[in-house]
Fold these 4 entries.
Entry 1:
Amino acid sequence: MFVPHFNKRGTMANKPITMTQIRRIIQLKAEGASNSHISRTLQIHRSTLNTYFFRLASSGKSVSALLAIGDEELGKLVYCENNTQKPVGRFQELKKHFAHLQSELSRTGLTRLLLWQEYRIAHPDGYGYTQFCEHLGRHRKILKATMHLHHDPGMYLQIDFAGKSLSYGDRFTGELIRCPVLVCTQPYSGYTYVEALVSARQEHLFCALNRCLEFFGGVPRNILSDNMKQYVVKNDRYEFTFSEIVDQWSVHYHTNLEATRPRKPKDKPSVENSVYHSYLRIYARLRNEEFESLAALNRRIQVLLQEHNQHTFQKLPSNRREQFHEEEQPLLQPLPAEAFLIRRKTRAKVQMNYHVVLGEDRHQYSVPHQYIGQQTSIIYTEHTIEIYLSLTRIATHTRCYRKHGYTTLREHMPQNHRAWQEHLGWDADYFVAVGEKISENAIEVFNRVLASKDMVEQSYR
């Protein structure tokens, strides 16, 4: 229970005085202390003390009786309604409009200044702009109350894409390639997995989730994501329809999939917090570093991620990694024998340059030149390309995501193209290397021929 008191200047300070101080006033008065002594000791103005003494005396109770009663009853004796700040009429009027003002602020272009101007037109004697913002801010703060959530170990994995991407430079073209970043978190321990992806498409997302579960060494009972389009086909706020491939993935790993409500990031607060920490402990450290491939970028991310997971908690003696391995990992379900693999299929005609185009990446892959003009089937995964003619596999390649690029095997080329390619590779070092395979005399002959012209190229062309 609190009552107001006056400051030393004799004006109302509106600062609370506790019941402990009231009891101390009673004790000092019972000991025979003067009002001046009590005022100096407790830092309370003498006129305020006189008010308290009058109210206590008016109760008709003895000192021992006053000290024996509870705080609530004692507060009623010294409490004076006239000293409390009652909400004035204009505040009550403003309070009626809080809900409307809150909804208006969510609309495009609406500002507090415009709402205040409209408020003053309707209420000329209303609050000024500063107090208007102060009261409205207090109301909005109450609406942002947070709730502590309890997480059981091994029950959930929360996943999300970071709002900001990372990048690496293509070593062939110099192009700066942006890549989305997947963040996965075990809410109980905070143990986190981070990986940069080629794209956010399904084949890359689910392959990354495969590696995520391998990183954790097990499968949680439930996996929670936001309303990402790779997951959810239809969302009716509390009812979700997942795509077929998502259902296949969940069956393969024997886990349950859930999605948050649209535009409700607080439904997955743990991974949102992990995204924030990834900005602080991974993104910030990478800001001045350059990488020539996605693999190099992810290797660096893993180093920084390990440091993050081993970073000691501020108020606990352990860290994320220790807590996960000691309390959470033993409760995870075992991984299946094989990882889930997404295979996609498309068709392409072999062009005159004996290549087929994978339209998804706009990259060309070679096949034996004798199949020019034939219609082929391309079966591809995240890392491999297989090209079939009917049921016969005629070529395999490692998948490359470089747009408008070519992946060509020498054995697929016609003989004259091989000779031309070999000719393009001729230089002084090439002939010396050929001479080394023959004899020392051949090396001497080649060197003399190469030195016979002012320009080396003229000696063999």
Entry 2:
Amino acid sequence: MNNSVQLVLRQIPSVNKILQDSVMKSMIADYGEKLVKISINSVLGGIKSNILNGLVDNIPNYDDIVNQIKVEVNSKALPSLRKVINGTGIILHTNLGRASLPENVLNQMQRIASGYSNLEFDLETGKRGSRYAHVAGLISKITGAEDAVVVNNNAAAVMLVLSTLASKGDVVISRGELVEIGGSFRVPEIITSTGGNLVEVGTTNKTHLNDYAEKINEETTALLKVHTSNYKVIGFTEGVSTQELHQLAKENNLPLIVDLGSGLLVDLSKYINYKEPTVQEMVKNSDIVTFSGDKLLGGPQIGVIAGKKKYIDKIKKNQLLRALRVDKLTLSSLEIILREYYLKDEKELLASIPVLKKLTESSDNLEQKAKDLLTILKANDKLNLKIIEDYSEVGGGSLPGLELPTYLVAIKAEGVSINKLESRLRKIDIPIIGRTIKDYFCLDLRTIEENEYEIIKDELCRITSN
């Protein structure tokens, strides 16, 4: 290290000196001394590293260093997982947490989280109870299943079912249903990882009932049908209905397992141009059905296993169940969501479950929301604004190909490039995530709440005023 570099390094203010600064004392009062010290060391360490690597020849002035520390403190004070405003129009955006929950669910979760609960305590008998009892009865009443159990997601549900019912024999499945879901999670690997032997039948585009029948033998332990909820095969295609498969399974004393995935509990075909099978339909024509809670059901991340009691009883005895069990907060939120389905009629459900509301919201409502947001943003004369028509997506591996007509507010900010605008909105306390269309930053009103308009206005004002 030469003398000139040493001289520059000696000019870096000490941690103790900065701690005596009035601005830092104020930060310590707000955030605590430990966080402020960590932030000071981080900023000073960065300055030192830049000097040693020859990236800069001198240090920033003292006020700039203090401002850098302030930014660092504010950044480190924020939790990593936090609320965002979803302006993408993707209703079940996996990266943004999928289904949003109703207010009454949040209230119940707070009550359960803030104290003790009867998670595994039977209030009638005063003895140990089952955590699944809080939701199993509701699932049965809503779906028609004899019994049910829940685990932490649908992938876990499928693995648990196969591990219990098909771990030492052939699992027969159509070649066209060997799907992959997020994170390279593939059905063939699930089957083999649980000890089953994968037996493919039919072709990618066509499978007939006789294809299944020809592969059934004394080694067969289950028939598996996977609903292609995250893609569609169109054209010259043919498949076997669950009714036909269920009859074939009965004739051979085998369970028919259906991985439904999306978990729809209400027939939405009268509201949207799409026919998706409901859980109730699948329960009626199978022995075991698995589905997600945080997709079209509109609840927390869980995997539901519903069906015949004799199979559910076996699943409950599987040691894997304990490793995959859900916690009290998940169960409390799921129970409230299920109570909504059990106690409310269809019209009330579409208004109370956020996912269903977003899926069925009318174009007229969305247009009015876009006009309302535009009016609020027009107060900022440094914004170039317009309303455009486009399409929303469902996302989350649900209702593939469905395009929902929507309205977006398109934004350009004076003196701020579209990339810079997108980046800055992504890095604020409550990040605003949108999409870019023809050099405009766009916000889809289908996934934006009215109470978020003022946040959007304030953040755009901050960006355009700097």
Entry 3:
Amino acid sequence: MAKRLSEASVRKAAADAAAGKTYDVSDAAAPGLVLRVAPRGACWAFRSSIAGTAIRIRLGGLDLFGLTVARDLAGAAMLIVREEHAAPTETWLSDQLVSRKIIAPAPEGQAAWRDLPRWTYAEARTAYLEEVKRTRRDATWRDRKSMLALKELKPIEGRPVGTITRQKLASIVAGIHRSGRERHAEHLAECLRPMWSWLAKDAQQIRSGILGVEMSLLRAPERSSNEGEETGHGTYVPPVAELGRLLAIAKSGVLEGVIRDAIILLVHTAQRRRTVVAARRTDFSEEDGALVWKIPPAHRKTARRLGSKKSHDLPLTGEVADMVRRRLNANVESTWLFPQVRPRRKGDEVSHLNADSLSHALAYLPVITASPHDVRRALTTHGQDVLGIDADELKLVLDHSEGHASDDVTDGAYSKARRLKRKQAILTAWSGLLDGATAATDLGDLDALRGAMRAVRLEKEAATAAQKEGRVKVA
């Protein structure tokens, strides 16, 4: 809803941005003018449409000019839309800012900033990935690196990134969606949006040429109706006996040692697969005879969502603690508890075990239906039904806000309690349940087990290859 902005509104917006708030306010006195507030700062923007196509352009930050100039720019932009049926361009905005003496013109004999060499998509991607690697988790960097280099993006790699429209990217995303990879299309859009947001920031605008492309509107087409049918995905609760068989297979020697140990830690602690594979040797420490795993905020999904700076501390005992100590005492030159055996691709750095390796390992095990995330559902279900543990207490282990509601301000802001004794009691009871199921498992002949694993792997690989071939034919 539009409201008439005032200088007080602008000051409040700056304060709200510093406080981490997010909202947009349309100015009733200047059609198209929007005051956008976000944790990264407040800015002026222009918003309109031509024949149903949205037009959005970032005009500048609050530190660049005030409300009066913002209204003048919005009025000039609206004149172009209404009389010329065209969208304001970055060249137009630059000329407007120079004519108002807000920015200086390029010195004589020097190219204007808009005429400087601009990044191609490939160059922009490289710069963006360097920033992701500096500021995000290793898993996020690897994911973005893979998604932003899909073969479907090859045709735009040499194009100036500032000339690539949202509509062009939407057509690429839609093409992937039509090939049957609907979730893949959604994920690509999720990766492209933050890249364009970064490219549009002040520090990158000169090289990217992107001033105000509103890429937040980029979306994949709606999923096909059969995608929404109940398939059982995301609802499976592995029986305790299945988890016991999984641990028995892991300990039998048929899996690589690093996969075996990662599975043991994952099943006994019910932590997310990315948290497990990204565990660093320095995350573990001895405290009063117990080995404590301090999961840093960067590797905690809950902490990243809520902005928490706390680590998620889990006391490890029994064979799980012994396994971790063995790996910590091993003479290896790696910061990771579970290092890669080899780089995923030639030229890549040797990092930690890839999270997908755990998913694939479980998928290739005969009579095992559970995925890594299903283990968390198993602890939640059997912890209540079999062990009689309250759901709120199970959240202490699962890292669901450490068992407290998200609106518990006192605990979130002030409590430093780690609740190690209660967590240890829960994990000990869970491990006891798993150990009983493991001891009751009869794997039979291990050579026959290896043969069955090989057969499952070949069957799944053949199905994947056939699916890919079908997609190529459809495309």
Entry 4:
Amino acid sequence: MTNDVLWLVRLGLDQGLFSRKHATAVRSEVGNDADIGTFAQRLVDAGYVEDVDTLEKIAGLAMNKGQKGPPSGDPFDDSGTEPPFAHTAAAAKVEAETKKSSAGPAPKFPFDTIGLLDGAALASAFRGLLRQTSDFGASDLHLSTGSRPFIRKSRALTFLSDYVLTADDALRLNTALLSDGQKKIFLDRKDYDCALALSGTDRYRVNLMFHKGGAAGSYRMVPDKVPSLSNLGFSAHLETIKKLLSYHNGLILITGPVGSGKTTTLAAMVDYLNSTRTDHIITVEDPIEVVQPAKGCNVTQREVGQHTKTFASALKGALREDPDVIIIGELRDLETIEMAITASETGHLVIGTMHTSDAATTLNRVLDVFPPGQLPQIRASVAESLRGIVCQRLLPDTKGGLTLACEILINNVAIQNLIREGKSQGLRNTMETGVREGMCLMDNVVLSLWQDRSITAETALANITNRVLRAKIS
């Protein structure tokens, strides 16, 4: 075999992308003289590899390494250790369970000695607390006046100490890592959002505020690596989402309640576009959470407050900055929504998030912000520009973690007519008949999760509204 094919097999086995048995079967079919392209294509055609994007990346790396010589040892030799898992949904679940079991110890911090620490010592200790919280696998850390410090992990709250933070404790702790300028803004405005970076991989989304007792802070852990769409739980809907992301214009909406993983999904979509296209991507965020280094695309990330005054002003400027893709952290108001629709109509792919629970509610929220006199025009614009809506929730699973449930709307002629006519109540029936196009309803997805024993009956009943489906559970 050629050096680059040997490297492809070595890297693929190391990544768990396919098994040695699969590689050997392909070698017997294509022969020892096959080039890397033929070998890789046969892996896909035979169904041995599902993650084609990762295979393409590995193939590029294998060609570079192959120019310098073969890998040490024959990757086809079965005397070595076989990679434990094939690259399947089951493997991803096992890998996630392994990571969960290897989480670090619960965070510890001497909250009762805050008053004894000087500024530098407090800042150093607080950095350690944030890193411990992240290593433990928690999603959020909360430090509030008059309350015990607590974290959130897999939706459950856990107190870190019995010590109740005083007003002075909470203020000193929540401002320990702020610059003088940031601290002044917080004290003046009484509200402050920012991204906190302790290093290239330690990033946190921070919200600071004052309440009746004093200062409070919420710290959201930002993953150090952008997960793939498959790892997030979209495996069954991957082709539908990839089709949405293949468009070069139109509007895609990612929606869900607070804490449903919208930001992570958005980051995974940007990473997919960044890896598969050669475009100019502009993101507008508040604040910048996940840093997206340029791969195939040039990625320009702007933060509201630091780089631009508002989402709307950034969008207005983006139209003059030659973008191909515009990412909007949150569609909050009429001006931002109107600019997003305009951008999607003028040859740009626009992806934004909203705090809505299903497709029908999302469309109503988009349309209801406009004055009644504009509605006919806006309905026509949305009907033409909308590509799809992805609504998601994170549900507690039976293993103590979280699992994704989603609802997907794909715009077609029937959906367009319902939007133009303002008949959002008909969306549900149309989506049920659009399964072949990749559509799915949240109720059906939740029922499937219960049937697969991924979630409990109680969780399923709490997230299904259809009486017929509820009857199947109860």
